[in-house]
Amino acid sequence: MKFRTLSYYLSEAVKSLVRNRLMTLASILTVFSCIFILVFSYSVAMNIDHFLAQLEDSLSLSAFIASDVEDSQVLSMLHEIESMENVAQIEYISYDEAFERALEMFANDPMFTLGLTPGIFPRSFIITMEDVSDYSSVVNALQSMVDNDRGLEYVRYHQSIITVISTLSNGIRIISTVMIIILIVLANVIIMNTIRLTINSRRNEITIMKYIGATDWFIKWPFIIEGMLIGLIGAALPVMIVWFGYGGAAEAIHNSFFMVEEVLTFRSAASIFVVLMPLSLSIGMGIGIYGSIISMRKHLQV
Amino acid sequence: MSVITVNNVTKVYENGASGLDKVSLTIKPQDFAFVVGSSGSGKSTLMKLMLKEIEPTSGEIVINNINLGGLAHKEVPYFRRKIGVVFQDFRLLPNKTVYENVAFAMQVVESSSRDIRRTVPAVLAMVGLQRKAKAYPNQLSGGEQQRTALARAIINKPPILLADEPTGNLDPDTAWEIMDLLEDINNRGTTIVIATHAKDIVDEMQKRVITLRNGVLIRDIEKGGYEDEV
Q: Which residues contact B138 (CB under 8 A, 6 or more apart)?
């Protein structure tokens, strides 16, 4: 394809877009909505995954040792728990260490620890998991040790946080996927109608082109490029909006929630958009081109 | 050597109507031929067959040494670039100027911008429209529109020009202007085939006349006039 022919296709496509501007706008807005949801949900999903990874370091299980367990038995218990599936790390907290931690925790309120001695606070194992979302297997195994009087008194874990984050992540993914699919279908329908209008308005021209000796692709390319431009514009706009808004939104959330501020950091915009930008633009263009091709198959006989 | 050979061609449409019935004719290079007959005689059918717009039911057509029966779909555009076409209703593009309408024929065959800039004004001058280059079709008279269509038809220097009722929408004086132009084009080497009802023009010009009636070729003479009855 010669450059001048490509510039002809481009100019014809742009003229059609301008000529049918209302339908063009409707098409672009539909693609915009679809890609906006994709960009938004992808950014959220990537950050939730990032949070979960960070939480793996800070979220752990605490298994408290029964007071009647001898110190000599502790080591074998430690090895047993360490060998469990999904256990990444285990730390033993002795009576003295537990006491030191309590003093540290209540350093600003020494009244709470006045008169207390080591031995008041139970010994424990602090267990870190490899996959924090798959905590239940470890919890069940530890709970079994509690139920069978095998040296553990009770188990404590941050179930609610893990469950909420995992559930939220899955929920966002499912809802976003459904919405994106619906919007892709809708965008295709609207783009097909936009191209159909263009085909109808150019029927006379197409007939003349055929008599003059235009090839099928000379006739078809402007329609394909028209669809591609709709998809490209519809995709580029939300990418730019989210790109420029990402930093501000991350900072606002960071400053608004204590836990986020203390424990978690957001992924950098660059690390998300290096994947998201080509993905979004490709999907947008794909929607546009597909809509054009389907419309041409139905309404354009060359 | 012929440039157009129609060999025993029959065309029957899907509704059973007969378009052509065993028509055979030969048109030589630089011929100027009128195809005459009343409505429904088969003139348009013959034109459409020669443009590969429709397929014959039987028989074969050879144009520029190309057998249209063996022409693949993707080769048809390249075949049509060797044939200029002019219609009764001009068929100009309303959103393009005279210059752009003519240049369009060169864009379709991917001519360079330089070639277009050089050739279009020359062809417009040839048809007497050099001052109307920036006008749109709705700003032109019928004769000017048809001259624009002629310019578009000849800009790629096709060896053959087919004209389907080129003077059908024109007054007599303007019609003669168009016929003079066509004769001029013929004198420059282009084979011309004109389907027409215009008895006065046919009688006056005394060119080859091919007469069709009900799809049958009833007369083919080297020089003659229009005869309604044989």
A: B94
Which residues lie closer than 8 Å to A68 by C-beta, 6 or more apart?
A: none
**Nearest-CB residue to A4 (from B51, B104, B112):** B112
The predicted model scores a pTM of 0.70
Q: Does A3 touch chain B (CB under 8 A)?
A: no
Encode chain B (230 residues) as per-residue pLDDT tens digits: 679 999 999 999 988 888 999 999 999 999 999 999 988 899 999 999 999 999 999 999 999 999 999 899 889 999 999 999 999 989 998 888 999 999 999 988 889 889 999 999 999 999 999 999 999 999 999 999 999 999 999 999 999 999 999 998 899 999 999 999 999 999 999 999 999 988 999 999 999 999 999 999 999 999 988 875 44
Q: Would you tell me which residues 154-213 of chain A have a C-beta closer than 8 angstroms to some C-beta of chain B? A: 204-205, 207-213
Among A62, A61, A71, CA closest to A124:
A62
Structure tokens at B153: 């038809």
CB A126 within 8 A of CB A93: yes
Question: What is the Rg, in whole angstroms, of the alpha carbon atoms belonging to chain A?
Answer: 31
- How many C-beta atoms surround the C-beta of residue B118 within 10 A? 11
Picking from B87, B121, B90, B84, the residue whose alpha carbon sits closest to that of residue B105 is B84
Structure tokens at B182: 């066509």
φ, ψ of residue A273 in degrees (nearest 5)? -80, -15
Of B91, B93, B109, Cβ closest to residue A213: B109
Q: What count of residues does chain B have?
A: 230
End-to-end CA distance of chain A: 19
Within 8 A of B85 by CB-CB distance, chain A residues are 211-212
Q: Which residues of A60-95 are buried (b: 16+ CB within 10 A; e: fewer)?
A: bbbbbbbeebeeeebeebbeebeeeebbeebeebeb
ipTM, 2 dp? 0.85
Question: How far lies A189's CA from each of A44, A197, A286, in Å?
Answer: 28, 13, 14
Q: Check if the beta carbon of residue A31 is closer than 8 Å to that of residue A287.
A: yes
By CB neighbour count within 10 A (0-12 exposed, 13-18 middle, 19+ buried), where does B75 fall? middle
Q: Are A37 and A180 in contact (CB under 8 A)?
A: yes
